[in-house]
Amino acid sequence: MKSIGETIQKQTGREAGRHLTVPAAAADLRAGRMLLLYDDIYPSTVMLCLPAQYANPDSLQTQLQIAQHPHQPLALVLSGERLDALRLPEITHANAPGYDGQLAQRYAASIRALLHPITLQGTFTLPKNLQIIRPHPGGVLQHRGFAEAALDLMSIAGLEGGAVLYPTNISTMDPDAFEVLNHLAAQWQINLLSINTLLRYRREHHVSLITETSLPTPEATFRLWHFQEIETREPYLVLTLGDIQGSQHNAPLLRLHSSCTTGDIFGSQRCDCQAQMHSALHQIAQEGRGIFVYLPQEGRGIGLSGKLQAYVLQEQGYDTLEANEQLGYPIDARNYETALEILQTMGITAVRLLTNNPEKIQAVRAAGISVESVPLQTTPTPDNLRYLQTKQQRFGHMLFSL
Tell me: the pLDDT tens digits for 77-119? Predict the structure, then answer.
């Protein structure tokens, strides 16, 4: 049986030669390597793409030498949010002179300043022949362009929202363009990515794997997988232990746990979130295998601010459901699509789901995963008794300890 790493690795390899899949291209970018981006539908230009956070004098000078296009402005793609924070318009300085090492240093310093979160309007000077590009919102799904492709790739790779683009002297309209592309890629040890490949990936995926590492805890040493939603950059953390790719008759434990800052971190007694989290991790550790998915869905999806406002109303006598309604929120705004895509990416086909929530059971089954429900009971306290009663009576949770 394949391990989880092998299952994911199968999806992250090369397509052919130096042509990469999107996950493999993201791995190149995370390692600080540049890519050759091309689009065979609009074939006038091939772009060198470098993550802006890795822009230093050496990498920029290498990019300029490879491009062999000395009279084009260097382009810095920044997210609309960053440009708005800097109050920086789209700026173009065309017909630039040739580049040298000193100019590459000025580029690197400017790019670092523009990416730095504490940089304020008016505290930096843009060098000449630097083009600032604001990509179309929505990425390549909304506009098929190099700027949109570059920023989508930074998000998929989990990197800062900025990319350096520079045109090469290759046009894919040339008869021998792809032969030249492959030769250049091999000569400079640079890999290739087609915008077609990226567009297909964006249509099929909402989440990407960023990092895998070890996480020692009091219960056990888990593998920690950091996934990220491509559109929102919201983090989804997955803890795995042991062999999790069981069959219907030997399924691993699974907990889908919505984040709760007040409970999980501070130990709030207004809810049972921390108790459920600790119980689920303990049960997984006791079995020696299982999956714990930490979802960024604070306050049943209404966010921390909304949840704390609901707390104020609860102090005035409203229950959890009524407080959400008074604030104009859904009674439960959570969505499990991203978590389920992660499970499918990991090759999970059967689970024993640690939950009291029938909606979670239905959502996992609807994704084609075999589900056995395992109750996750906690001991009520005077502070959370009404909260638990509301979950049971108004949300339909299967709580047997009340």
Answer: 998 888 888 876 655 444 444 455 577 788 888 888 888 877 7
Q: What is the pTM of this model?
A: 0.86
Residue 29 is part of which domain span? Answer: 4-204
Are 195 and 228 in a shared domain? Answer: no
Set 112, 334, 386, 394: catalytic member:
334
From 28, 264, 272, 332, the catalytic residue: 332
The answer to whether residue 366 sits within a structural domain is yes
| Contact criterion met (CB below 8 Å) for 378 and 44 | no
Is 111 in the same domain as 180? yes
- The answer to whether residue 234 sits within a structural domain is yes
Q: Could you tell me the CATH number of the domain that includes residue 120?
A: 3.90.870.10
Three-state DSSP class for 250? coil
Nearest to 394 by CA among 287, 300, 278, 260: 300
The residue type of 292 is F
Whether 334 is catalytic is: yes
Buried residues in 195-230 as b, exposed as e (16+ CB within 10 A):
bebbbebbeebebbbbeeeeeeeebbebbbbebbbb
Q: What stretches of 4-67 adopt beta strand conformation (E)?
A: 14-16, 19-20, 35-38, 46-51
Structural domains counted in the chain: 2
